[in-house]
Amino acid sequence: MNQYTILLSAPYMLPYIDRFLPILDQLGCDVIIPEVNERLSEEEILTYAGKFDGTICGDDRYSGRVIKQCAPRLKVISKWGTGIDSIDKSAADALGIPVFRTTNAFTVPVSDSVLAYILAFARKQPWLDRNIKKGGWKKIPGKSLAESILGVIGVGNIGKAILKKAHAFDMRLLGNDVVSISQDFTNEFEVDMVSLEDLLSRADFISVNCDLNPTSRHLINEKTLSFMKPSAVIINTARGPIIDETALISALKDKDIAGAALDVFEIEPLPNNSPLLSMDQVMLAPHNSNSSPLAWEAVHWNTIRNLLVGLGMQLDVFDAIKKEETRMQE
User: What's the CA gap between 253 and 248, in Å, rounded?
Assistant: First the structure.
C-alpha cells in the first residue's frame, strides 16, 4: 500500500491519466479520480473529505469550509495552472496547508490568443468567411492594427507579453494596473500607463488580464462599460467574474460596444440559455486560451513536483522519472 492518497481532479491532466498513474504509483501515491465536469463543487469535494492527503486540482472550489473539513489529513493543494482564486488561501495558511501553483505557465499561448482575437475583429476574418460560405460577396470593412489603440488591464506577465506583441504591429498602447510598472518596460514598448476610465474611453481593443480578487470582481460593469467607445471590443482571457456578464450582454444588445471575445465566463461551462451564444458580434471559447502542448507538459510535471514538495517527500525518484520520460520523448 502506498504512503499517500491523492485526489486528482485537474481537467487538463485527466485525459493523460493513464500516463501519470504509474508515475504517481512509483512515487508512493494512490490516486482517487472523481468524475469532473470542468471543476468540482464544494459538495463534490466534501464527499472525499478525510480520504486524501493531497490534491492535484483545477478550479475546484476549495473554500474555507472545504479546507477545514478536509484537514487535518489534507497536507497540500497543488493547483494545475496559475490562478488560485477558487482556493481560500487564507484558510489553508491558517491550517498550515501549502498552496502551490505554476506561475507564468501560459504567458505565450494566452498572449497569442489575445492577438488572434484582435486580428480577427480588426480584419473581420470570421465574418467574411461566414458570409461567403452562405453565398454572399459582402466586403466587410476592416482596419489595420497600426491605426488602432490597445488597452491592457493588468500589466503582469501576460499583459506585458500582449503589449510586446502588439508593439510589433505598431499599435498605440495603453496600460492600467494597481501596481507600479517598470519605466524601462513602458519606455521600451511605448506604453502609456493611464487610469481605468482613460483606458476604456480611448482604446479600440481592451484586453482584461488582471487577477480575480475582491477588488477586481465585476471591475467591468455597467458604469465602466459606459466609458467604452461604441466601436470598441473587449477581450477577456483572465477570469469570467471580472466582467459583469449581465451588464456586458446589455451593452452588446444596445450596441453600446461593438463586440467581445470571451474565453472565460461567470459560470463555466457557459449555460445553454446564455444570450451570448446567439450574438454574432461575440467570439466564444471554452476556457481554452492556455492551449499549448509544450506549456501543458511543463505544468503537468511541475504540479506533481509541487505536490511532492508539499508532502515533504524526497525528489530524487521524481527527478529520475522525469529525466527518463524526457529522454524517451526526444
Answer: 9
Question: Is pTM, for the whole model, over 0.70?
Answer: yes
Alpha-helix runs per DSSP H in 89-231: 89-94, 107-123, 125-133, 157-168, 183-188, 196-202, 222-225
Average pLDDT over residues 18-43: 96
Strand order in the sheet with 149-153: 191-193, 172-176, 149-153, 205-208, 233-236, 259-262, 282-284
The half-sphere exposure of 166 on its side-chain side, counting CA atoms within 13 A, is 34
Q: Where are the beta strands (DSSP E) in 144-250?
A: 149-153, 172-176, 191-193, 205-208, 233-236
Q: Which residues are catalytic?
A: 239, 268, 287
**Secondary element (H or E) of residue 284:** strand 282-284
pLDDT digits (tens, 9 = 90+) for 263-312: 999 999 999 999 999 999 999 999 999 999 999 999 999 999 999 999 99
3 state SS of 236: strand
Give the burial string for 34-55 (b: 16+ CB within 10 Å, else e): eebeebbeeebbbebbeebbbb
Residue 111 pLDDT grade (very low, low, confident, very high; cuts 50, 70, 90): very high
* 292 and 108 Cβ atoms separated by less than 8 Å: yes
Judged against a pLDDT cut of 70, whether residue 330 lies above it is answered with: no
Largest CA distance in the chain: 67
Q: Count the Cβ atoms, other than its own, within 10 Å of residue 105.
A: 22
Residue 117 CB coordination number (10 Å): 25
